[in-house]
Amino acid sequence: MKCRLTFLILVLLVLGVRAQEGFQLPEHRKKIVLPFTFVQNLIIVPVVLNGTPLNFMLDTGVEHTLLFSLKDTDNVRLNQMEAVKVRGLGNLDAIDAYSSENNRLEIGPMTDLAHKLYLILDERVNISTSVGMPINGIIGYHFFKSYSVRIDFIKQKITLSKEVNKLMKRREPFAEIPLTLIQNKPYLHAMTALGSKVTPAFYLLDTGNTDVAWLFPNSQPAFIFQPHPFVDDYLGRGLSGDIYGQRGRIDSIALGPYGVKRPLVAFPKGDFIQHLLQINGRNGSLGNELLKRFHLVWDYPNQKIYVYPNALIKAPFLYNMSGLEIVHSGLEWVTETKDLTTQSIYAKNVFSNSGQRINDQIKVLFALRPTYVVELVRVNSPGDLAGLLKGDQLYKINGYLCTSLTLDQINGFLKMRDGKTVEIEYIRNGKTFTTTLILKDLLP
Length: 444
Fold this sequence. Notes:
Number of strands: 30
Mean pLDDT: 83
Largest sheet: 7 strands, mixed
Strand content: over 45%
Radius of gyration: 25 Å
Shape: globular
Distance between the termini: 79 Å
Structural class: mainly beta
C-alpha cells in the first residue's frame, strides 16, 4: 500500500509539472495586454530573463527561444548548459551554441519557470545593428502555444487570452483560416497571382520576416513564379549568414477573402534556403510587411488564425531605392549647443558672477547619439553611382544630422518617390564628403 501511495504521489507531481509547463497567466487574470515596439517591421517585446531585463523579437518562424551572445547579455545567468550546433538561414555552416534549461522568463505578468533556450555564441549574429535598438534574443512557438494571441499593429499591443472569443468583438469581420503546425511553426494556404496564373500557395507565417513575402520559385512544378522586372538584392541575414536573391512585384496575395495588390516580394536564391525546401509543398513565407496590414488573432491550440484588414491595408508597398544597406554601428559622444535665452525660465534667471542678468547664454551639452554606416552597396544602384562605399559613416541626410535620427527615419529618406533627390554628407577616413543620389524605382 505504501509503494502504491508513493507511486500515486509521483504521478500527481509529474502531472502537476506538466500542467504548469510554459507561460502561465496570473490565476485572477483571464486576459492580459502587452505593449510592443514595432521597428523595421519587427515586433520587439520587453522580457526579463533570470532577473535581467532584455528585448526579444517575436518570431513565429522559430520553434526554440534564442539568446544572442552580446554585451547586453553578459550578465545573464543561465542554467544547465550543454554545447550544441544550430543552423538557420544563410550560406554558412552550423554555428556553435549552448542549450540551457530551467530558466525563468517573464513577459509582462506571464512567467515560465522552466524555459529552455539556446545561447548563440557567434557574435556576427546581431539583429541590433539592422534594427537600430538592442535585440537580445528571439522567442516564437513558446509564446503562442498555450493561449490565443491578438496582435494590433496600429496600437502596438498584444492581447493574450485563454478564450479566443474574448479577443474578437461581434462586429469585427474576422475571417477564419486553418493553420497547419509543422515543427511548431504556422503554415497556411494563400492565393497568389502573377499575371493570369493564380495558385493556392503554401506559406509559413513568419513575423521575423520583414518583407511581404519570400517566394521559392520552382519549389514544385505548379509553382513557377518569375516577375519582370526584378532587381538583384540583399535580402537580410540569417543565423547562418547573409541571404541574397531578387525582388519584384506580383499581382496579388490574399489572406482568406482579403487581398493586397501589386506587393513587392523577394525570391531568395536556392543555395541560401536549401533546408527550408524540405517542408513538403512549401512555397515560401509571408512576413510583416503583409501581416501588419491586418488585425490578427492567432489560435495555436485550435490551429486557426483570424484576420481582417486594418487602416494600413491600402498603404503603398515601398522599398529602399538607393541600393544602400544602412546599419547602426554604435554610439558616439557628440556636442550639442542650447541657447538658454530661447527658454523663458532660463532667460529671466541667468546671472553673471557679479550678479547681473545675462541676456545671451549658450550651454554646451555632451550626449551619446547613434551612428550609422553603409554596410552594403548594390552594384549600379543610385548609391553606387553616387560614390558611396561600404564603411562610410553617414553624417547628414537632406540636412538632418544622422545622430538625431532613428534607423527607421533614415530608411524613410531612401524609400521616397522615384526621382527624389537625396543629399548625403558622409565621413570616410576622417574626412567629410557630400554627394547626391537620385532615387530610381526599378520596380514600378
